[in-house]
Design brief:
Blueprint lengths: L2 H18 L4 H16 L4 H11 L6 H14 L2 H13 L5 H17 L2 H18 L4 H11 L2 H4 L4 H10 L4 H30 L9 H26 L5 H19 L5 H34 L2 H12 L3 H18 L2 H18 L4 H15 L7 H10 L3 H24 L1 H11 L1
Helix pairs in contact: 1-2, 2-14, 3-14, 4-10, 4-13, 4-14, 5-6, 5-12, 6-7, 6-8, 6-11, 7-8, 7-19, 8-19, 8-20, 10-17, 10-18, 11-18, 11-20, 11-21, 12-13, 14-17, 15-17, 16-17, 16-18, 16-20, 17-18, 18-20, 20-21
């Protein structure tokens, strides 16, 4: 075995062994990178250089701003208003509260950009509410955690920013536009699944549809929804960059949460900032250590080897696209979302573009695959949060989620094989 092959083996084997042993992902990435550099005889000062380089990016500054915006809006009493708006839209249907849950996640995802925040915020309200109205608690939890993945696709999603940075120059504005229709498609597939189950189990309907109530709730929620409009229109229209739009959105969110909705006071704002710093420190450590890991992969030509291995299985682009989905789903079972985006993008993106996918379409596919991974054991963070919020065993939640996994896979396959679903809005605006 040559020195390069030895280094690749050390890098990948040590990484997956530490993942299996449940090391924190940042430690697993950093330690395996150090071992790889040591085997290659490179100075360990290289580690620090690449870590600093990995986070020295202007576009990356958008991530802390978007995280802060999401936490501010989520803590400012927005959840209840968006639930009321969703109820006015779809609460009249069979299984109305399940539909409300799914639509509220679409609205809230456009503010938080986080599946975990969506599950914790909306789930703490909607799961008990659904249980009181006669819905099975495990069903309510399954609806909550699966619909939370809409927030990963609907802009402004900080994971889109991380992907744009990893992919090297992909337009954040195009990614934001590309997420709307796939997010809506995911919501529709989940609503169809919920309707079938609700019909079978005779879950109740809500109040009759009222256009007057809808207008009233829309007028109340417009301040929250305007934050998304500011970001998306500003970025797509070229008024300001993603980083600048995120900073403006933070100021706007602060004003709305403190002075308009009055859901948080200044003491609460400082606590929110403390939570954001804790979250951001985790994200930046992951990005910096993943930069070293990614450099090791590139130096050792792992992306080229992976491309040859996948193309060696088949030359059929449909088969290759399925293999890409399968790889990402498998990674999602053992890794969190940000590390997958940071590590897998340089490896898999060239393969995706070689079969005709655009980087924007592949970004949407990657985010949805990673979102499904957040719901799968043994490392599914959103699955754990949903179980904790509902106070149910994880096994029971997984069993109730099985039909919704199928709905999500259907949405994933449609997005994979019909490029227009992701690319319609970016091409239209372009």
């Amino acid at each position: 075995m040559g020195s390069a092959s030895t280094a690749v083996a050390v890098l990948l084997i040590s990484f997956f062994v530490m993942i299996i042993l449940r090391f924190p992902i940042a430690y697993a990435v950093a330690i395996s990178s150090v071992l790889c550099l040591w085997v290659q005889g490179l100075p360990l000062s290289t580690l620090c250089q690449y870590m600093v380089k990995g986070i020295s990016s202007f576009s990356l500054m958008a991530v802390p701003f978007f995280i802060t915006m999401g936490v501010l809006m989520g803590s400012g009493g927005i959840s209840e208003k968006l639930i009321a708006l969703a109820n006015a839209c779809v609460g009249w249907m069979t299984g109305g509260m399940a539909m409300v849950n799914i639509v509220a996640s679409y609205f809230f995802g456009g503010i938080s950009g986080s599946a975990s925040a969506d599950t914790a915020s909306l789930g703490s309200i909607l799961i008990p509410m659904m249980a009181e109205q006669g819905y099975d608690k495990d069903f309510a939890t399954a609806v909550t955690i699966t619909s939370s993945c809409e927030g990963l696709l609907v802009p402004p999603s900080h994971n889109m920013v991380i992907y744009a940075m990893s992919a090297g120059g992909v337009s954040v504005g195009a990614l934001f536009l590309a997420g709307y229709i796939p997010g809506a498609l995911l919501a529709i597939t989940l609503m169809i699944g919920s309707y079938i189950i609700s019909k079978k189990r005779h879950y109740p309907k809500g109040d009759k549809f009222s256009f007057k109530v809808l207008l009233k709730q829309l007028s109340i929620s417009v301040w929250a929804l305007a934050a998304v409009i500011i970001v998306v229109v500003g970025v797509v229209g070229g008024v300001f960059t993603a980083t600048e739009s995120a900073a403006i959105a933070v100021i706007y969110s602060l004003i709305v949460s403190v002075f308009i909705y009055k859901g948080v006071d200044w003491k609460g704002v400082w606590k929110i900032m403390d939570d954001c710093v804790n979250t951001l420190s985790i994200v930046l450590i992951l990005i910096s250590t993943s930069a070293v890991f990614g450099n090791c992969l590139t130096r050792l030509h792992v992306p080229d080897m992976a491309a040859r291995a996948i193309i060696g299985v088949s030359n059929n682009p449909y088969v290759i696209a399925l293999l890409l989905d399968l790889i990402l789903l498998m990674l999602g079972c053992i890794m969190d979302m940000a590390p997958i985006i940071l590590i897998a993008t340089p490896i898999l993106l060239p393969i995706a573009t070689s079969i005709g996918m655009t980087p924007v379409q592949f970004g949407i596919i990657m985010v949805l695959n990673c979102g499904i991974g957040l719901l799968t054991p043994p490392v599914g963070a959103v699955l754990f949060i949903g179980s904790a919020v509902a106070k149910l065993p994880m096994e029971k939640v997984v069993k109730a989620t099985l039909p919704f996994y199928l709905c999500m896979i259907v949405a994933l396959l449609l997005i994979t094989f019909i490029p227009g679903i992701s690319m319609f809005l970016p091409n239209l605006i372009k």
